[in-house]
Structure formats: C-alpha cells, structure tokens
Amino acid sequence: MPQLADRLSRIKPSPTIAVSTKARELKAAGRDVIGLGAGEPDFETPDNIKAAAITAINGGDTRYTAVDGTPELKAAICEKFKRDNGLEYTPEQISVGTGGKQILYNAFMATLNPGDEVIIPAPFWVSYPDMVLLADGEPVAVPCMQSNGFKLQAEDLEEAITDKTKWVLLNSPSNPTGAAYSYDEMKALTDVLKRHEHVMILTDDMYEKLVYDDFEFVTPAQVEPSLYDRTVTMNGVSKAYCMTGWRIGYCGGPAPLIKAMAKIQSQSTSNPCSVSQAAAVEALRGDQGFIAKHNDVFKARRDMVVDLLNDCPGLNCSKPEGAFYVYPSCEGTIGKTTPDGKQISSDGDFVTYLLENSDVAAVQGEAFGLSPYLRISYATSTEALKEACERIKRACEALSE
Ligand code: PLP
C-alpha cells in the first residue's frame, strides 16, 4: 500500500458520484432503478455545437492552445458577459478551464493560504468545501433555512465575515436547492460585501440560463459595480448548452488573479480541449433558441415534481426559481419505521430506504451540508420522474409511527 499524502484525509469522494455509481450497479444487476441523482441535463448537445466541433477537428484545431483559452473563445466570453450581464471584461480578464470545476479550483489554489476562510452558504454544491480544503483553506458553512428559500441572509453573512475571510462563495441558481437570488435579495448581500473591502466574491453562475417563470437572473458585480474589482464571475457551457462531457468552464475577474490562475493551470492540465473550445465558441455565439425550449420542459417537470412530493406524507418541498433540482425536507419521516423494522433517523437512512425498497436513487441532504433533506434532480424523463414520485409516495405511506 503506497503511503498517501495527508491532504487526502481532509477530503471525501463526491457523494453525488457515489449515488450515481450505486444506482448504475443496481441497474446492471437487473433492478429497475430510477436515478434522480443526475447533475446534468438529459438533452443532447445541440447539433450546431456538435457541427462546430467536427469542423474544428477537420480543420486541424487539434493542437495545444493558449493555456487559459483561445483568443476566439475569450472574445466570445467577453461578448457573453456584456450581452447577458452588462459586465465589461477584456481578454486578459478571462480564464477558460476544463469545466467550471477547474476554474474554482484554480481560484482557490491561487489565493488561499493556510487559515484563510471561505464562506459557503449551506446547502452547497458538494465540491466547494473539499476544494477549499485541498487548497489549505477553511470552509465556513453558513446555514440557509428553507423558510428563507434556502438563501443567505444579510445578517448571517455579516456575522460570518472575519478578518480571515478571503472569499464569499455565492451560487445562484443553486445546486442543490435551485434557489436563485432576485435583484433585491442580491443587493442585500452586496450591501454587506461593500463594507468589507478585504473580502473577494466568487460567484458560481453555472445555472444562470436555467430559470423559470420570468425570473430575472442577476450576478453580484452587475448589481453592485463597486464590487467588480474583487469579484470573480464564474460560468460555463456544461448545463445550459448540455455540454457536461466537453469540459469547458470560464470566468471573468481581476487580471492579476487571472494570470495567477493560468500559472496554476500551466503546471497542471494546460489548455482545455481545443475541440471543445471551438464548440464553446459556437455555443456562446450561435442560436440560443433551444434554451427556452429546454426550460419549458424543465419548468413543467419542476411543477409536477413539487406537487407530487408535497403529496407524500412526511415530505415538504419548496418551489425553487431555477436549476434542475428540488430539495424537499424529509423531517416528517424521521423517527418512523420501515416495513422491515428499521428506524429512519437521518436523511441518509431515508434515501437508503428509498433505494433499497423502492429503487429510487436520490442524494441525502447531509452531503450538501443541510439536513434533513434530500436532493432530487428532475433532469430525467417526465415519465421516469412521475413513476419515481409515485414510488416515493408509496414508500412514505408504508412507514409507520
Ligand atoms: N458549479 C455547480 C453549482 C455545479 O453544480 C457544477 C456541476 O455539477 C459545477 C459548478 C461544475 O461544472 P463543470 O461540469 O463545468 O465542471
């Protein structure tokens, strides 16, 4: 057994990937499992984007590129920020990485010293705290209650900021809750951040395009332009353009930080895939019409899932503004007993019960830092979702006091 590095003991494997793996194994063993753990759209990458990639391959776009993105892609990203967010960035302020994940990782690696704190509203995307830990920082989780729409409150943010706070990490719409901040809600937070000049803001806008009911997406540097110089605005093509496998994420931010992030990337992965970069140019500049079509489907599924879950005894589900997740409370199932005599004492027990008894795979809220909840992804077919909700209802009804 090789001697492993100490840093490995600080982190855990992604629990969402663990759930998908377990569901896949059960399926392979012949069980009719419905996976509600997916973190990716169930739609294919649009044809115009695929075609741009094929053209890139045939045209010889097959070599190393500039470490943190081709000039064409950086130009397309500058246009996107201006068009969608009213943010002016120059190419020196843009970094392109292998997925949004690498952008976040680079930003932490480039800035955190031991003891530096990163404020992370909980529930959070599972990778945030572990990425901070890998970079020697201290994640500081701030609970965000369902009664506040799972959104960070200004007074809680104020209280969490210390002299050691390096970053505040915001994610709207959120994975795992789907919660998105309105202009007023974001302004309440940027008003606090304005007063703490040593704090940098990292905003994960990965689900920007996936909002419903005419909700208007906003991002911190747009709401409070005085924060522009200390904000990193992260985004990517993975979710809105159905390109999770292509691995392209990007950010706009202060040029010296962008340069430092490129230095890290130059000694780890170098450039993101050249073909994927060409495809991302088409994604950002090409026809955007399919996004509204996908959103119509997502919205209908969200509405259906929220209604069906609220019909399950013991569950309580809020209707979120965006992304493709809901985050129902399973508090009403805690303390109950399953038909084979096991007590449900945590959200982990509840999702295990759903998987073992009903062949439904969801992820326990504990993985996202707020219990007792579970995350359900509705990025799966409407029929499968309906069937899954019916199974969940039967499973809830079968619990006894
Ligand atoms: N940020 C959030 C909130 C996510 O949910 C994800 C993916 O699940 C990412 C970032 C990472 O995106 P990418 O696949 O581009 O690395």
Written account of the structure:
The protein is of the alpha/beta class and about 400 residues long. The chain is about 40% helix and about 10% strand. The chain contains 13 helices and twelve strands. The protein has helices spanning about 15-30, 45-60, 70-85, 100-110, 125-135, 155-160, 185-195, 220-225, 255-265, 275-285, 290-310, 345-360, 380-395; strands spanning about 35, 95, 115-120, 140-145, 165-170, 200-205, 230-235, 250, 325, 360, 365, 375. The strands form three sheets. It has a seven-stranded mixed β-sheet with strand order 2-8-7-6-5-3-4, with helices on both faces. Strands 9-12-11 form a three-stranded antiparallel β-sheet. A two-stranded parallel sheet has the order 1-10. Strand 3, helix 5 and strand 4 form a beta-alpha-beta unit. The chain starts with 14 loop residues before the first helix and ends with a helix. The mean pLDDT is about 95. Bound molecules: pyridoxal-5'-phosphate. Pyridoxal-5'-phosphate binds near residues 39, 100, 101, 206 and 244.
Summarize this entry quickly.
This protein has about 400 residues and is of the alpha/beta class. It has helices spanning about 15-30, 45-60, 70-85, 100-110, 125-135, 155-160, 185-195, 220-225, 255-265, 275-285, 290-310, 345-360, 380-395; strands at about 35, 95, 115-120, 140-145, 165-170, 200-205, 230-235, 250, 325, 360, 365, 375. The protein has a seven-stranded mixed sheet, sandwiched between helices. A three-stranded antiparallel sheet has the order 9-12-11.
